[in-house]
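Message: I would value a second opinion on how I read folds in token form. Give me a protein, with the fold worked out from its sequence. Write it directly below this note and I will take it from there.
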Amino acid sequence: MPGRRLPRPAELAEILRPRPFVLNPTDRRLSRAHTIADLRTIARKRSPRAVFDYTDGAAELEESLRRARHAFGDVEFSPNVLRGVADVDTGTDILGKRSELPFAFAPTGFTRLMNHEGERAVARVAERERIPYTLSTMGTTSIEDVAASAPDARRWFQLYVWRDRGAGRDLIQRAAESGYDTLMLTVDTPVAGARLRDARNGLTIPPALTLRTFVDGALHPAWWLNLLTTEPLTFASLSSWGGTVAELINTMFDPTLNYDDLDWVRENWPGKLVVKGIQNADDAREVVNHGADAVVLSNHGGRQLDRAPTPLELLPATLDSVNGSAEVWLDTGILSGGDIVAAIAMGADACLIGRAYLYGLMAGGERGVQRTIDILRAEIVRTMQLLGVRTIADLTPSHARLRRGS
């Protein structure tokens, strides 16, 4: 057995390689994020509890969201080898136009609450990355301002049907005039879901300075400073609001929404029409019969009806029902590039991501959203390479299945 000795300085120099110090604190923070879960951890530390919980939470016992995550966890991949995967193309056609990644940014409400850069930052990332961005009716930046901030982005507008049809017609017209090429009608929100985290946190829009929020603000001074020293919150669809999210939904949204309203939207919108919030195969077929170009299997991120169907499990029946007459997209519970690859392999034409980019936004503004894209792209490429697949079109059900369905 060889004896011990002291290492030579040259030997130590080879292994002592301290990580270079990153001067910018945002870049330094984001450099530690290697997954969306890492971004979530950073977001939780940097945001007031009520704001983080609004993004992170779901309805009632949050079972719908847990089931969606469990479904992706139950995916089993089936790789092929010796396929030559040095070059991978992550692009795909979504509604007849190329997207450089097989997903779009979903509509999210009150985005400037997560970070003062808000919707503009997200739209700019979408423009750079050449993927679609969807502005929510409940967004906190106007239709026109988002268009001005990202003039070359592929912009979509998400619509809720208001009790006031005139207001809805005005939103449709403004979106068309501002160059939004697709309208996404959300149909799963006749009334507000019971989002208990928001109720327990006393979340209002805009946030009220109660004793609780004051104490929380002392722990997150940068967030409050940014909120109070930048332009007041404005909305894509209304001038102001002073209550809770649930009160806004129950006051403004129309619970009588039916297929006649879908026909009205189709008649008034000149571009592509997507219907979001489909939760059974029969409804998917019916909205396509009424003119939808794509349907989104979604339970609103688990934020409406708890114990709603899990979109990934609903995908096969919906594909059979629609039978190629419209695109079928999927959201809810997507937190990795592997999740996206699994959904595409199992038949989805595209995915929407919401929470994932909001975690990035909370973690580091526009740079955090960019970090989200960088993480997801790397995961998509790596997963495709390990599956032996070079293009999105090459993904088939032979590459992924739900284990519990076997």
Summary: The chain has one domain: 25-73+94-381.
